[in-house]
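TL;DR need structure tokens for one chain.
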Amino acid sequence: MEKIILIKYGELTTKKANRNLFVNKIYENIKESLANYDVKIIKNRVRMFISVKDEQIEEVIDIIKNIFGIHSIVIAYKVNTNIDLIKNSVLEIAKNTCFSTFKVETDRADKSFPINSIEFSKEIGGLILKNISNKKVDVHHPEYLLKIEIRNDYTYIYSKEIKALGGYPLGVAGKGLLMLSGGIDSPVAGYMAMKRGIKIECIYFESPPHTSVAAKNKVKELVSILNKYQPSICLHIINFTELQEAIYKNIDPSYMITIMRRMMYRISEKVLKQRKCLVLINGESVGQVASQTLTSMQVINNVTNLPVIRPVACLDKLEIIDIAKKIGTYETSILPYEDCCTIFLPKHPVINPNLEKAIEYENTFDYQSLIEKAIDNKETVIIDKNYKKIDI
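>> reply
TL;DR here they are.
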């Protein structure tokens, strides 16, 4: 009787012809995440099985429970599909488990097995009652739910399921560029995009000396936290100082945020194309600030024809905070370091900007050359799952 890790796919079971594509991507992501472990991984269309040393099982589960595309994980006992062997194994497992009430559920995936699921569950239940004292069957609220999956070559016996992240395997949908600030919303947006199978790169706008090194390091730390879900993330750091100062000098204060965001979108689009990403991702939430009214979004978004994904657009702030706490970014996000969006903040930013007026303001200075200069001088680092920051 061998102890293994059994993985259930969940949402991927809705896939038909493309299911193998999704399963293979999960397999690749698990293999990458477990590169430092001596493991054997076997996959099929409905399950994945990982063999590893018993003393490393918990460590491995802590890693793979953060891999998208996995619905749940169980520690299972693997035995040959033989009636007597299954019964003997169940008794051995049950005798070493503390419970008063129990229920047996059998999944007979191998239809050549001579006993149907309901009858076999009854047989196993009777076997436990006969051989282990002081046990009772409770089909509604059992302390111990014993599950038996009967498959062609092997049968898997287990009880507790560990809930994983679900969603689609990272990378199956392609790559997106996340506009990452130091706030609460954008890391959550990145996490939610990853959950739908989008591998991310990040772009961050700094404005030294108006923004500090601490603010940049805060963003790097946020990326490090997201490494839990994507082992290696490319971060592009844009020096936005000259552009932002030009905006401050030339633009009506009420339109500064609008123009600044339009410049960020233009730069992001160029970096996106350089890096062969498919979509922009950001943490905009409808109505949260002046630049996130529907009118503002329309005027700002006008500079690009690219699709822009806003995963938190229709969540309220408390919902976003709950997710940030769950994924571990919240405490870092609330560190009090200013970013580009908070410096030079006007008292009364326009909430319903006019597109023609925005274009008129932009034409008062040579923003194109400043954009090209900012992109040419961008700093790019790879932040990996071991929290190493490597300049490239």
